[in-house]
Structures are given as structure tokens and as C-alpha cells.
From TrEMBL:
GO terms for biological process: carbohydrate metabolic process. This is Glycoside hydrolase family 43 protein. Keywords: Glycosidase, Hydrolase. Residues 303-498 form the Beta-xylosidase C-terminal Concanavalin A-like domain. Belongs to the glycosyl hydrolase 43 family. Pfam families: GH43_C2 (PF17851), Glyco_hydro_43 (PF04616). The record marks 119 as: Important for catalytic activity, responsible for pKa modulation of the active site Glu and correct orientation of both the proton donor and substrate. Transmembrane segments: none annotated. It comes from the Bacteria. GO terms for molecular function: hydrolase activity, hydrolyzing O-glycosyl compounds.
Length: 502
């Protein structure tokens, strides 16, 4: 199958079939719009169609720490409606969204009560009883954060109230963090599939079977039925899967990372979505090992800014549902970002809600560029961001082009005189061999920050990409690259993203 199925930071995938169509949803954490949705007619090639969370109030991510917010949706179709259950971690908590069409509009989100935990799945039996199965977690008290295993309640989906106390179901083979449960009725049996081992290198998928949605469940003798742990597979952290039946067989959609460099220790793009096939032997799934797809064509996306034309579905802001600071009608053909009134000396991209519009880095080799006009008083540019404490920036203003590497307490800058007029700024990423580091390159990639094109291109700084990975930032998210304003008004005439899979 095509892998990655969805490139760049798209973790916790969930999939559903409706007629001849397939729909896929992913986590979005502190980013807005939330819960990206994709459509496919073959469960292999996915096209973005929108988001569940498009309005203020549906989630409460305004102040969540990085990696908090929207976790692990489950997408299902029942009674003529699309259903999404999801956790808005450290925000609104466990939520149910519904929509008649996957493209939306989606409901405001009903808060579930009596099912404390994360990764809520939703399933119905033949009588229409609704089961919410989740990874139980102490959300308060002295034991806050303690995992309680996979639990379940029957749920009244009109009120969001659990109809019983949580019951423990089955918690895997004893690996850490049993989570991401999905419950299915398949050919008369009930299956409970979970992730265990933690979302890092030990990640795996395990499955159990029972006669009813409430169990009892018996684990598959071959558990974990899928994992890349302790292998040198180019995709690591494989786990957190969801199943779908196609006309030609079964597909598992799951998350994984692509850690680069010789040590395979650092993953620039965080957790992405992958897919593989499976068959059934004696009532248990046998999952086929997937490989990265070779020779995929490069991608170029050039965004131009015209009044009245929506930016593409890929554009994200940080913890910000409304973006009055981003306007397309101030100057024809230019996007204008208006900076916040920041404290003197503050670093713009350190803000909880930076004036930033970005898109996911989706390829190992990538280049982002934009033509930036700061006028006489503005300051702004491009940033590749993990979170407010981990970002590399290149900005122009006040007569200088300034590159910045911001890593927790480290704030290193390099400044060179700026050319007159609008400046083309760029950020590139390349794997160690392409960067001239040879096979012994320990890093995953090199990030270069500069300005100008062709013979006039000037590299202002080059930085080891290791410090901007899900592994070093201990983050659930991935790299997001885009445009920001640091002072005054900053105008962008285009933004180009180029990506190569090699
Ligand atoms: C998610 C959990 C996990 O809720 O990470 O990989 C958490 N698994 O299932 C956030 O993505």
C-alpha cells in the first residue's frame, strides 16, 4: 500500500467505510482548525476534505500546553450520521461530534461524562445500545495521570451521560500504556483492538476477541499482532491502528514515525499515518508488514493570496480559532499578518498564540519560501515550529535578515544586512547524506535558513535538525512551517512548499 498514507504530522488515525467511500480522521492537538478529515475511494489514496473543528467553542485549546488539545479521534457512521469521539485533553475533555456529511458542518460537540480517560471509541450493538470504550486515566487527585487500562461504559448519546460505572475490559499483554481501543463486530464475534507499549519505539497493536461487546475478551496468542519494535524498519513507533474492510480485503490504518540518520533516533515530522493489509487465520488477524513507498513524485504547492479565496485546508494557526490578524483584502495579491503588541524583546514565535499561519512539513527533503514585505516598520518571516520553545526562524525587518534558533533556554541569532525591498526568505531541510555529512551523519536532517534566489541566495544559518523532532521535544506533534509577523504589518506575496520523499 501507499506509505506514508498521509504524510507529515497526522497521528492517531481512525477510519470508517460508508458505502463505497472511506473517511479518515487524525489528531490535531493545539492547532486550528482541528481534526483533519480525508476521503478515499480505495482506502489507500487520501484527499483532504475538511475538519471537524472549524468554529470557536467546539474545542478549548486556547491555553492548552503543546501536545494537549485534540487527541485520538474515532470516526464511525451510524444511523445515517457520522460520529467522532475525541479527547480535548486539558480542554473540554471527552466529546462526541456528529455530522450528516463528513465535509461538515459538524456539531458543537457534546461533552461525555462518566468516562474519564482518553482515546474514546464508540460502537453500537444490533439493538442500538452504544458502548464507549476508552483508556481509563485518573484525571484528578493524588494519582493524577495513572493509567487504569481499557474501560467501557454504555452511553446515552443524547445527554453524553454514562449509563453505568466504567468497567475494565482487557488491557493487553502487560506492555505499558494500553490505549487507543477500537471495538468491532466482525462476522459475529466482537474484537477489541488496542495500542500498547507507549507511542514511542515500543509501540504495538494487540487484539482480543469475545462473544459480546462487553466481553469477556481473550487475547490473541500472537499478540502483539503488529509492531516494529527492535527492528531497523525505516518506519518506527508503528501502532495505534484502526481496521476497515474493503472489497478486496482488510486494511489497518496506523501511526508511525520516520526517524532519520544512522541511529534512527530522531523523527522530524512526528507521527504520520501509514496503512497495511491483513488477513484472518482461525479468527485472528495476521497483519502484513508494510514498506515505505519508493519513487514517489515530488510535490510543489504554491499558495498565492487573493481576496475572497480561502487558503487551502492545510493552513493552521496555533490555539487560535479566529484569525482577524490575517487579512487577504488589505493589499491585492498579498496576505497581511498583523503582529500582536508584544513586550519589548519578546520572541514572536515564543507566544502562546503567535501570529503564525503554517502547514505541516510532509517530506524529508523540503523547501518553504515566501516573498516578504515588511515596509519600514514591520518585522516578520518564516518559522519551522514544534512548539513555542522549539522553533527555527528567519525574519526580515529593521534593515537586517535575522536567523534564530530557539531551543528552551537557548536563543541564538545570526544577523546580516537586508537587501532593499521585499525579500524572498526560505527554509530548507535535507537528510544527512544530501547535506554532505556522509553515511555517518547522526542527525536526521539539516535545516537551512536564508534569503534570496538563484545566484543571490544567502544562507544565514544551518542547524542540526535533531533539536526539532518529536523525540527531542517529547512532543505528540510534528514540524509546522509557515509565515509569522513579529512587529507591525507584514505582507506575503506567495508561499511555496516543495517536498521530496528522498
Ligand atoms: C493518544 C494516545 C497516543 O491519545 O498518543 O499513540 C496520544 N497514542 O493514544 C496523543 O496522540
Amino acid at each position: 500500500m501507499l506509505n506514508p498514507a498521509v504524510c507529515g504530522f497526522h497521528p492517531d488515525p481512525s477510519v470508517v467505510r460508508v458505502g463505497d467511500d472511506y473517511y479518515l480522521a487524525c489528531s490535531s492537538f493545539e492547532y486550528f482548525p482541528g481534526i483533519p478529515l480525508f476521503h478515499s475511494t480505495d482506502a489507500e489514496h487520501w484527499t483532504p476534505i475538511g475538519h471537524v473543528v472549524t468554529r470557536p467553542g467546539q474545542i478549548a485549546v486556547e491555553h492548552v500546553p503543546t501536545g494537549g488539545g485534540v487527541w485520538a479521534p474515532t470516526i464511525r457512521h451510524h444511523d445515517g450520521l457520522f460520529w467522532i469521539t475525541v479527547t480535548d485533553a486539558m480542554g473540554r475533555g471527552a466529546l462526541i461530534f456528529t455530522a450528516e456529511r463528513a465535509e461538515g458542518p459538524w456539531s458543537d460537540g457534546l461533552a461525555m461524562q462518566g468516562a474519564p480517560g482518553i482515546d474514546h471509541d464508540i460502537a453500537w450493538d444490533a439493538d442500538g445500545a452504544c458502548y464507549v470504550t476508552f483508556s481509563g486515566l485518573n484525571l484528578e487527585g493524588e494519582d493524577i495521570g495513572r493509567h487504569l487500562g481499557i474501560q467501557q461504559v454504555r452511553m446515552d448519546t443524547t445527554t453524553g451521560l454514562a449509563l453505568e460505572e466504567p468497567r475494565s475490559l482487557w488491557s493487553g499483554t502487560g506492555l505499558k500504556f494500553p490505549e487507543a481501543p477500537h471495538l468491532y463486530e466482525i462476522d459475529g464475534a466482537w474484537y477489541l483492538m488496542i495500542a500498547e507499549g507507549g507511542t514511542e519505539r515500543g509501540h504495538s497493536i494487540s487484539i482480543a476477541r469475545g462473544d459480546s461487546p462487553t466481553g469477556p475478551f481473550e487475547g490473541c496468542p500472537a499478540n502483539p499482532v503488529y509492531s516494529h519494535r527492535s527492528t531497523n524498519h525505516p518506519v518506527q513507533n508503528a501502532g495505534h491502528g484502526d481496521l476497515v474492510r474493503t472489497d478486496t480485503g482488510w486494511v489497518v490504518i496506523l501511526l508511525g514515525t520516520r526517524p532519520g540518520g544512522m541511529t534512527q533516533a530522531f523523527a522530524p515530522m512526528g507521527r504520520e499515518t501509514f496503512a497495511t493489509t491483513l488477513s484472518w487465520v482461525d479468527g485472528w488477524p495476521v497483519v502484513d508488514r508494510f514498506e515505505l513507498t519508493a519513487d514517489r513524485p515530488p510535490v510543489t504547492v504554491r499558495t498565492t493570496f487573493d481576496a475572497g479565496v480561502d487558503l487551502g485546508l492545510e493552513w493552521l494557526s496555533v490555539r487560535d480559532a479566529d484569525r482577524p490578524w490575517a487579512t487577504l483584502d488589505a493589499r491585492p495579491g498579498w496576505l497581511r499578518l498583523h503582529a500582536a503588541d508584544a513586550d519589548a524583546g519578546a520572541v514572536a514565535m515564543d507566544a502562546e498564540r503567535p501570529r503564525f499561519l503554517g502547514r505541516r512539513q510532509q517530506h524529508v527533503t523540503s523547501r518553504c519560501a515566501a516573498l516578504v514585505d515588511t515596509g519600514t516598520t514591520g518585522v516578520g518571516g518564516l518559522s519551522v515550529r514544534y512548539d513555542e520553545a522549539h522553533h527555527y526562524d528567519i525574519e526580515v525587518g529593521g534593515g537586517v535578515v535575522l536567523a534564530r534558533v530557539r531551543l528552551d533556554q537557548v536563543d541564538q541569532t545570526w544577523a546580516v544586512p537586508a537587501p532593499d525591498g521585499p525579500v524572498e526568505l526560505w527554509i530548507t531541510t535535507e537528510p544527512p547524506v544530501a547535506a554532505g555529512l556522509g553515511l555517518a551523519g547522526m542527525t536526521c536532517d539539516v535545516v537551512r535558513l536564508g534569503y534570496g534566489t538563484g545566484d543571490d541566495a544567502v544562507e544565514v544559518a544551518a542547524m542540526d535538525g535533531r533539536y526539532l523532532t518529536s523525540d527531542t521535544t517529547a512532543s505528540f506533534t510534528g514540524r509546522v512551517t509557515g509565515m509569522y509577523a513579529a512587529a507591525g504589518d507584514v505582507a506575503f506575496e506567495h508561499f511555496t512548499y516543495e517536498g521530496h520523499h528522498g
